[in-house]
Amino acid sequence: MEKTHTRAALKFVKASSQSAAVSWSSTSSGMTKDELKDGLFGKSKASQKSLTKENTKPQDFKLRTQERALKRAMFNYEVATKLYIIEQQKKQAEKLQKMIEEEEIRLLRKEMIPRAQLMPFFDRPFFPQRSNRPLTVPRDPASFRIVSGKCGTRISSGGLYDFQGSQGLKPIR
C-alpha cells in the first residue's frame, strides 16, 4: 500500500517538474513540447493515468458533527432536567416551610387567647413548705470598694476580682 502511494507521489512530482520546465520552452506554433508529446503518445499516457486512478480510491471520511450535536443536545437536556428538578425541590421546600410557619402562627394565636384562671380554694388554707436550699450568707456593704486604675473604675467585692492597672490585660496587636 505504501509503495503505491510513493509511486503516485513520485509520478506527480515528475509530472509537475516536467510541466514547469516545458512551459518555458514553447515552439513557434504556440504549442508546447509537452502538448506535442501528448498528441503523439496520448494512448500510453491515458493507460498510465487509468492505472493510477484504479489504485487510488478516496477514503470515506466521517465528520463527527452529527455525533457532537447529539451529545450536546443530550447534555443540554440533562442540564435542563437538573435545573427543573432543583426548581421543583426549592418549591417543595418553600411550601413545606410555609406550612410549618402557618402551623406555628396558628399555635401562637391559640396560646395568646386570654383564659380565665381558676378560682382559688379558700376552704383549704395555704401552708408554705420550707425550702431545701441553703440559706444565703449576708455580706457587709463595707466589703465593696471602688478601685480606680489605668483601665477605668471597677467595683470589686473582697478583692476577688481585683486587677491593678493593665496587668491582667494584654495589648492587642
* Low-confidence parts: 19-28
The average pLDDT score comes to 73
Q: How far is it from the N-terminal to the C-terminal residue, by CA?
A: 81 Å
| CA-based gyration radius | 54 Å
Question: Biggest sheet, open or closed, and with what strands and sense?
Answer: 2 strands, antiparallel
Q: Work out the helicity level.
A: 40-55%
Structural class: mainly alpha
Strand composition percent: 5-15%
Tell me, briefly, the overall form.
elongated
Strand order of the largest sheet: 1-2
Could you give the count of β-strands?
2
DSSP helical segment count: 4
SSE order, as H and E? HHHHEE
Protein name: TPX2 C-terminal domain-containing protein
InterPro entries: TPX2_C, TPX2_fam
GO molecular function, one term: microtubule binding
GO biological process, one term: mitotic spindle assembly
Helix and strand arrangement:
Layout: H1 2-24, H2 33-40, H3 42-55, H4 65-111, E1 144-149, E2 152-157
Antiparallel strand pairs: 1-2
Biased composition (Low complexity): 19-29
InterPro entries: TPX2_C, TPX2_fam
Main location: cytoplasm
What's the short version?
The chain is mainly alpha-helical and 173 residues long. It has helices at residues 2-24, 33-40, 42-55, 65-111, and strands at 144-149, 152-157.
Keywords:
173 residues, mainly alpha, 2 strands
Task: Describe this entry's structure for a reader.
- The structure is a single chain.
- The chain is mainly alpha-helical and 173 residues long.
- It has a domain at 1-89.
- The protein has helices spanning 2-24, 33-40, 42-55, 65-111; strands at 144-149, 152-157.
- The longest helix has 47 residues, at 65-111.
- It is elongated, with a radius of gyration of 54 Å.
- Residues 19-28 have low confidence and may be disordered.
